[in-house]
Specification:
Order of helices and strands: HHEHEEEHEHEEEHEEEE
Bound molecules: hexanedioic acid, magnesium ion
Structural class: alpha+beta
CATH architecture: Alpha-Beta Complex
CATH class: Alpha Beta
Distance between the termini: 41 Å
Shape: globular
Number of domains: 1
Length: 255
């Protein structure tokens, strides 16, 4: 087995069994190109087990997120059907190592998008937008990682919840976004914190995934990235993300 395939097996098993792993360091340290190759190989393992790719997540698209994890580059990962949690649904802590939730905006695509496109072209391909929550769960011990580590680990993506879909013409440029845990606001921000406008995350997604032979397909969901830092999940916690004018998305953690 090649080093990259071996790394893919390690991150895939860590995610599948919810066991923390050490970072890839020294000779094993992953440069960015190798890290995206490891991500692709680890997702291929999931597809071989029957999961289907349903979209992409953009990560570290706000200053708040970059500061929280000490990595300052926009990254991306793949979403599969097994990662989707129904709106209002429940998850189990045992499925994760040390999960966190963060407030996002989701795009649903009506048309494919690929390569260098403008914001106008991106929005023309959008069928709907929605409030969303991403559940992130770095598989690395103590939630500590380098850029290569986190990219190899599918950019920490573990789950996502999408609220009601809204019209694509909805103005999403500067909407208040709240993350509540058990009814208490724990993070507050604006959609403008996502690269200045969430559509820029969609533009970046089309360009960045193309480098790896991927295309945003009609029917794909694209998460734009979090507007605020993420919040640690605890058993029994109810999480709700509200986005001004769009609505909310919520889920609970089993007691
Ligand atoms: O914004 C994100 O979704 C970043 C994911 C990678 C870093 C993290 O685990 O917070
Ligand atoms: Mg995110």
């Amino acid at each position: 087995m090649s080093d990259l395939a071996n790394a893919a097996q390690i991150v895939d098993e860590a995610a599948r069994t919810a066991n923390a792993i050490p970072q890839f360091t020294g000779d094993q340290a992953l440069g960015l190109d190798d890290a995206y190759a490891v991500q692709a190989l680890s997702l291929a393992r999931r597809y071989a087990r029957g999961e289907r790719r349903v979209g992409f997540k953009m990560g570290l698209t706000s200053r708040a997120k970059m500061l929280q994890v000490g990595v300052d580059e926009v990254i991306w990962g793949r979403l599969t059907n097994a990662m989707r949690v129904e709106e209002g649904g429940e998850v189990a802590m045992e499925s994760y190592v040390h999960p966190r939730a963060e407030p996002e905006i989701a795009f649903l695509l009506a048309e494919p998008l690929s390569g260098d496109i403008s914001a106008v072209q991106a929005m023309a391909a959008v069928e709907a937008v929605a409030p969303a929550v991403e559940i992130i769960d770095s598989r690395y011990q103590n939630f500590k990682f380098s850029l290569g580590d986190v990219v190899a680990d599918n950019s920490s993506s573990s789950g996502f919840i999408v609220g009601n879909w809204c019209a694509p013409e909805s103005d999403i440029s500067n909407l208040g976004m709240l993350l509540e845990a058990n009814g208490r606001v724990v993070q507050a921000g604006s959609s403008a914190a996502i690269l200045g406008h969430p559509v820029r995350a969609l533009v970046a997604a089309a360009r960045m995934v193309a480098k790896w032979g991927e295309t945003l397909q009609a029917g794909d969901i694209v998460l734009a990235g979090a507007a605020t830092a993420a919040h640690h999940l605890q058993p029994g916690m109810n999480i709700r993300v509200s986005v001004q004018n769009l609505g909310s998305a919520s889920f609970s953690v089993r007691k």
